[in-house]
Write a structure and sequence with these properties.
The complex is a heterodimer.
Chain A lengths: L4 E3 L2 E4 L5 E6 L6 E7 L5 E8 L14 E5 L5 E5 L8 E8 L8 E2 L3 E5 L1
Parallel strand pairs in A: 2-10
Antiparallel strand pairs in A: 1-3, 3-7, 4-5, 4-8, 6-7, 8-9, 8-10
Chain B lengths: L2 E4 L3 E5 L4 E3 L1 E4 L4 E8 L6 E6 L5 E3 L5 E5 L4 E6 L8 E9 L10 E2 L3 E6 L1
Parallel strand pairs in B: 2-12
Antiparallel strand pairs in B: 1-4, 3-9, 5-6, 5-10, 7-8, 8-9, 10-11, 10-12
The chains are: A mainly beta, B mainly beta.
Chain lengths: ~110, ~120
């Protein structure tokens, strides 16, 4: 079946611009996660959505980052006033339900800030 | 908060050699453990997981891992590697309880494996 779908696969933008990254989770998965993978770093947790509960935003690095999930399915991660240190691969994952279930990852969006 | 340490940044092996990738974690409670693999140009895939029971778990493609609780380790092994095993391998942990933070996977920085034909 279809896996986690992310778009765009690559995004190049100028410093100071806003960007939106999209994630379409596996159908039927109620939990959705965003992670960031920076050069030389491991994967860093950003935000977690589970059903209709309030998201856990504790991993967002600054108030320039926000995310929403509409209708319990598609999610959008928005970065405002991008900075060069935002350059990274942004990964989305979903799991059948929350908790510590195995997470299934998308291909990621490679974001480059000029 | 939990942390994960992978000892090797880059491992180079010849085909048929045996593989062991180290992973140690730090956390004050019970954890669930995972190994993920990322083949070149592909997304992260689950290789194997440990939740409870037999500490020796078998995953896909002939990989296995052993959880040693006393050493806080979850090393990945394969008796004989193939060129197609060339990839980056990530160890990850997640708290085993239910509640706040229990869904946050914490990853190591990854180990790149290059297998020479």
């Amino acid at each position: 079946g279809a896996g986690v779908s992310q778009s765009p696969s690559n995004k190049v933008t100028e410093k100071g611009k806003d960007v939106e990254l999209r994630c379409d989770p596996i159908s039927g998965h109620t939990a959705l996660y965003w992670y960031r993978q920076s050069l030389g770093q491991g994967l860093e947790f950003l935000i977690y959505f589970q059903g209709n509960s309030a998201p856990d935003k504790s991993g967002l690095p600054s108030d320039r980052f926000s995310a929403e999930r509409t209708g319990g399915s598609v999610s959008t991660l928005t970065i405002q006033r991008t900075q060069q240190e935002d350059s990274a691969v942004y990964l989305c994952a979903s799991s059948l339900r929350g908790g510590n279930q195995p997470q299934h990852f998308g291909d990621g969006t490679r974001l480059s800030i000029l | 908060a939990q942390s994960v340490s992978q000892h090797n940044h880059h491992v180079i092996l010849s085909e048929a050699a045996s593989l062991e990738l180290g992973c140690n974690y730090s956390y004050g409670g019970t954890v669930n453990l995972f190994w993920y693999v990322q083949y070149p140009g592909q997304h992260l895939q689950l290789l194997l997981k440990y939740f409870s029971g037999d500490p020796l778990v078998k995953g896909i493609k002939g990989f296995e891992a052993e959880f040693i609780k006393s050493k806080f380790s979850f090393n990945l092994r394969k008796p004989s590697v193939q060129w197609s095993d060339t990839a980056e391998y990530f160890c990850a942990v997640i708290p085993a309880y239910s509640g706040a933070g229990s869904y946050q996977l914490t990853f190591g920085k990854g180990t790149k494996l290059s297998v020479i034909p």
